[in-house]
Write a structure and sequence with these properties.
about 425 residues; alpha+beta; 14-stranded antiparallel beta barrel; 7 helices; about 20% helix; elongated
């Protein structure tokens, strides 16, 4: 999302480069840089248009003679070191691996009046390395994605919509769709205040929607920030564990085989696990590549059901595992703070938070759950030329506050840590 904004040089840095060329007396380089800067969303768009008009007047030309079409290519190549931990209520998991990431997106831009239209076709992929011991974090060696993106940028409005289709090893295809719209209502000094809305949809889950108030500060050098605070709704697939238990109990009673189910525990006369196996592998054998879209807690639940369903004494019983779209709602925060030095170096910190309450779940115990998720990290960027080199760390954390009934079904805590190194480019 926002690939045209994430990988591109900022308007402020291009503006500064144009001024440097102007000071050096290189008129053609200055004009080219000013024209490049006006194509990038930022607080100086109107001022840049006035500067360009003055240049064309001085050169006995007008902006109407300028070709409104332009073509650019954005790319990223990096290596992510991965470390995953899962603990609390389930068997502890600790895994390490790597991901080689690549993306390339050509954009066609069209400028008309105060509006810039951008059309992008993106290609990206992941190749996971050293993943032999990553059954929970990753079970495929590669995936590739193809995406379509359209963005519209004006003086105070930005719209970005797109769709991605991911193809996972094993020929599994997963589409998703997104939209972001933001409007500035007030500007003062180098700051902007407004509102934004975001939506995301994956047919296998989740469906997410959020409304934010926004606050930005943008200057060529020094302290910058973007802060979004608001509320988020999320609907994601979950296993209807209680319905499955009831259906299975009824099937067993019909065959009068209750005594062969082992010792009693909190769910009734059922043993939760026999000989433990990898939940993802059991899920893949049962459901196929669809398992790649389900988190570990869901797989753990389905594994429990599969283990019991596969016992010899009940081999004649076949009960479908029902799925349910649980609905969550709560406060959310997205923030990014950076400091830009004059040596083309930028230090950036990121913090995203969400605390969710269950609005609607498959059962009353599930509705007692609470979820806290966060993303935080820091990145260092250096842009000596058209390339931007980066180095940083980032963590994805999720915590479930579980009622007693669900302890041992879902992990209470999971942390994915990434160390990133690579480079981006724009031509």
């Amino acid at each position: 999302m926002f690939s045209s904004l994430l990988y591109a040089e900022t308007q402020e840095s291009v503006y500064f480069r144009a001024m440097k060329a102007e000071e050096a007396g290189d008129v053609s380089a200055a004009l080219a840089a000013f024209e490049e800067a006006v194509q990038i969303p930022g607080p100086y768009t109107e001022e840049l248009r006035e500067i360009i008009d003055e240049y064309y007047k001085a050169l006995d030309a007008t902006t109407e003679t300028k070709n409104p079409w332009s073509l650019r290519f954005l790319g990223d190549l990096g290596f992510y070191g991965l470390h995953y931990n899962e603990y609390g209520g389930v068997e502890k998991v600790s895994e390490t691996g790597g991901d080689i990431f690549f993306s390339l997106t050509p954009f066609v831009d069209y400028s008309t009046g105060d509006w810039i239209h951008s059309f992008g076709l993106g290609f990206s992929g992941d190749w996971f390395v050293a993943n032999e011991d990553m059954p929970v974090l990753d079970t495929n060696d590669w995936n590739i994605s193809v995406g379509l993106e359209y963005s519209l940028v004006g003086k105070s409005l930005m719209l970005d919509v797109g769709a991605d289709i991911k193809i996972v090893e094993g020929a599994y295809v997963s589409p998703n769709f997104y939209v972001w719209v933001e409007r500035d209502f007030y500007r003062f000094e180098k700051q902007r205040v407004g509102a934004a809305a975001w939506g995301y949809y994956d047919p296998d889950g989740p469906l997410s929607f959020a409304l934010y108030g926004s606050w930005h500060r943008m200057v060529p050098y020094g302290l910058n920030w973007s802060v979004y605070a608001g509320a988020r709704f999320e609907a994601d697939s979950a296993v209807d564990f209680v319905s499955y238990m009831e259906s299975y109990k009824n099937a067993i009673e019909e065959l009068e085989q209750e005594d062969e189910w082992g010792t009693e525990n909190q769910w009734g006369n059922y043993s939760m696990y026999g000989n433990w196996q990898n939940p993802m592998q059991v899920c893949l054998e049962t459901y196929g590549p669809e398992c790649y879209n389900w988190n570990v807690g869901k797989l753990d639940s389905m594994y429990w059901a599969q283990q019991n369903a596969s016992k010899d004494t009940t081999s004649s019983i076949s009960v479908a595992i029902p799925k349910y779209f649980a609905k969550w709602f709560g406060p959310t925060l997205r923030s990014r703070v950076s400091y830009k030095f004059k040596r083309n170096i930028t230090l950036e910190a990121r913090l995203n938070l969400f605390y969710g309450f269950v609005l609607d779940g498959p059962d009353s115990n599930y509705e007692k759950m609470r979820k806290f998720s966060g993303v935080w990290g820091t990145m260092l960027y250096w842009k000596p030329n058209a390339l931007t080199l980066y180095l940083g760390v980032e963590q994805f954390y999720k915590h479930y506050s579980l009622p007693r009934y669900y302890k041992g079904v879902y992990p209470e805590n999971s942390i994915l840590s990434e160390m990133k190194v690579g480079f981006k480019w724009e031509i």
